[in-house]
Amino acid sequence: MIRTTPRQIGGGRSREALVAQAQASIARGSKSFAFASMLFDKPTRERAHLLYAWCRRCDDIVDGQDHGGELKLDSSSTVDRVEAIRILTHRALEGQPTADNEFDALGQVASESKLTREMCDDVIDGFALDAIGWRPRTEADLMRYCYHVAGSVGVMMAHVMGVPLDANETFDRACDLGLAFQLNNIARDISEDDAAGRCYLPEEWLAEMDIPPGQHMKPQYRKQLVKLTRRLVDLASQHEAAARLGAGQLRFRQRWAVLAAANIYGAIGREVVRRGDAAWDRRVHTGLFNKIRHTTAAFKEAISGSFEPETMPEWTRGRLLVAARMAGPVADVPRTPIRDEDVRRKED
């Protein structure tokens, strides 16, 4: 008789060990998120770190890098890497050991926060796009990608913070925050992405500026690139404003942390715009003094409340979910034969 592996939350590892490993990962991989997450209450902070560790690990596996360092893609298939991520993720969600701390960390936080396979697959589908060398043709394509790699993570973070399952408006705003983060990151990392053979600027945007495909980092197109970057950051600002509105539905420390993160990541995009054509000469980052300043401003806003945007973003979570599902594989058609005894009259 074959014995099945018993279900073990966190792959059988202690929660304390998983949290310690996750905290080390975030301290190394994202100083901005690590700083903002310190404002959470301890349970929320630990769950946020567990989720981050999984996201970071997936990103590094796909890119063949370590904590966001220089891209070093080896000869192994990126498509195979994504499939391995999906298998390990599903195994972790089923409470099975994965022999990987970060995937076991996902199993732990999923059990505590009601994270589902569908949520995780939405994130993995973004990695799958990168694995096949995908590039956005339209703004809709860009926003669908941002939903996969960041908006869906925002929704998962809302679950981590204990947002009620029927609070759809709050989940929408959490998605907006993820979209804002990713759009600012894209603006900042245009040069690094180009060096790795990637471009997240829609082809239609490039065509509008008469920039040939793959040539956007050439000096002669720098002025046009600055305009496109401003367009990215303007989109990010719209979603950031909507996210601030949703923060009002959170508990105070959660609201403070979310607003601090919005300030810090928003400052990245605004600094890229401020630098103009020198934006990619050196990487934009937020120093400790500015992080403290943004956190202080977030504290005041957490008390006073956020202003409602004049207009809400065009790219809603519902719209992006539909786009994601439409772009996914077609569901299998049931192949069970249809009984016909009651349809055709038997001959006498």
TrEMBL record:
- Give the originating organism: Aurantiacibacter atlanticus
UniProtKB keywords? Transferase
Protein name as it appears in the record: Phytoene synthase
**Which InterPro entries does UniProt cross-reference here?**
Isoprenoid_synthase_dom_sf, Squ/phyt_synthse, Squalene/phytoene_synthase_CS, Trans_IPPS_bact-type, Trans_IPPS_HH
Provide a Gene Ontology MF annotation, just one: squalene synthase [NAD(P)H] activity
Entry's transmembrane regions: none
| One GO process term, biological-process aspect | carotenoid biosynthetic process
Q: Name one Pfam family in it.
A: SQS_PSY
